[in-house]
Write a structure and sequence with these properties.
Layout lengths: L4 H5 L3 E6 H19 L6 E2 H11 L8 E10 L8 E2 L3 H4 L3 E3 L3 E10 L5 H14 L5 E5 L7 H9 L7 E6 L9 E4 H8 L4 H8 L1
Length: about 200
């Protein structure tokens, strides 16, 4: 694996993530569930989370999938605070293989001439225009600013043959894409089971 971003962007399946946003959501979940469950919650397993996103995005567990995971992050940020592995520089160009296939990570910093939302939108636009990509999964900051609204407008023009899934913490206005709740995949990556929650509620 050579870590070339142009190669990883054009996998058949692409996940695009606002890294600081999902890190913040993970932190909030850790704080809330530690209080609720009365135990320490470890940092989220990044590989397990990528698996859960892929499954939510419609990827079949046949072991033959190629998945590019693009982490769009602030230039000043060195890595995640609430995921392992954490370092963006160490993740960039790295890959892992499991029962779903091969996942290749790219860490893309925001340069001074643009904003993170604009960079994420540019990446999504490039992926949508690629004939090679069959599935796109996007984790935007749907809570601050207007990135989600811009995505809705952009994806109106997306090819209907592409399976596109947007992830948010709550149901959002719909469009030419599927929606999934972000919290479910993060709970899996944090090691929080439905059985544990059910037991706490009883």
């Amino acid at each position: 694996m050579d870590g070339n971003k142009n190669d990883t962007l054009w996998s058949e399946n692409v996940i695009v993530v606002d890294a600081e946003y999902v890190d913040r959501v993970a932190f909030n979940l850790i704080v809330n569930f530690e209080r609720m469950l009365g135990r320490k919650i470890p940092a989220a397993d990044l590989a397990r989370w990528a698996d859960c996103l892929a499954l939510d995005g419609g990827i079949k567990p046949d072991g033959d999938n190629s998945v590019a995971v693009v982490l769009v992050h602030d230039k000043s940020s060195d890595g995640f605070d609430n995921f392992v592995p954490a370092s963006f520089s160490e993740l960039d160009g790295k890959a892992f293989k499991d029962h779903l296939g091969e996942f290749v990570f790219s860490a893309v910093p925001v340069e001074h001439l643009t904003t993170k939302d604009d960079l994420l939108l540019d990446v999504v636009q490039a992926v949508v225009e690629s004939e090679d990509v069959k599935r796109l999964m996007v984790v935007p900051n749907s809570e601050d600013g207007d990135c989600y609204d811009h995505l809705r407008q952009m994806l109106r023009r997306a090819d209907d043959d592409k399976r596109i899934t947007l992830f948010a913490m709550q149901p959002m206005p719909g469009g030419n894409f599927r929606q999934e709740i972000l919290g479910y995949s993060l709970m899996q990556a944090l090691g929080i089971s439905a059985a544990e929650l059910d037991a706490q509620m009883q």
